[in-house]
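Q&A FORM
Asked by: J.P.
Topic: structure of Molybdate ABC transporter, permease protein

PROVIDED:
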Amino acid sequence: MASNQIDINRLGKRDLAELAGRGQESVSILSRLREVALKASLALLLIIAITFIALPVVALFLRSPLDTTLQSLHDPVVMDALRLSLMTSTLTTITVVLMGTPIAYVSARFRYFGKELADSLIDLPVIMPPAVAGIALLMAFGRMGIVGHYLDAFGISIAFTTLAVIIAQVFVSSPFYIRQARTSFEDVDIALENAARTLGGSRIYTFFHVILPIAINGLVSGAIMAFARSLGEFGATIMFAGNFQGRTQTMPLAIYTAMQGDLDVSLCIAIILVAISFVVIFLVKTLTRRVYKNAGN
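REPLIED BY: S.T.
REPLY: Here is the structure written out as tokens.
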């Protein structure tokens, strides 16, 4: 045996423990170095992602000072677009909630033939390109469309009207509410519903007095998301409703139009939409946090 080798048989327990301790210490140092390197890489990646997202938003505010934004608020294009967007988005949200709540409940609680197909069709507008959604609505409700052809015979025209804006917004935003509402209803313990039914409550009474109060935060969160999606709708609206100031020109369409002539107006509308988007995110996160907190209790 070479002289520089250690004869393990001649080592005492104390020497063996010392060698083992040194080996563990080396492994521990190496593990800490790897952990530090991983954390540093993740921190760098997070900083890059945040900078990438925040930089355009900051540039938007820096490019349009507060006084310029306030002056642009008085522009008729801004006021008309803001008024129309808030009105149509509010009506859209009400429609989506009234229509989507029973659909979401049925989807969460019942099994029926073709359920997967129905759920897929409800979710389809989420991934459908907005321009495709717009031309599809035009082919359905336009003057020469499948349904619009018959409506036109009675003097009813939908395309390129304010009603077309609402229909386009309902089409693209309803999946956001229905998906959230469906998840909220699924999270309600079925035992509570069965207990209420056992005590004599009707299905309608149980829904409004047991299920709805538990799922309300999730439903409100979905309604806020639907409102935000309808507020930012562009592609389907411009294809199906057109771009007429005061009638179909919502804020995203007004930004597109103003970019061709008045940058300050487009920046003003963009800042308004960014502010609304931030409020929406804050509200949704707050409501979601309450849902998880209540679930934990």
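FOLLOW-UP: The two ends are 68 Å apart (CA to CA).
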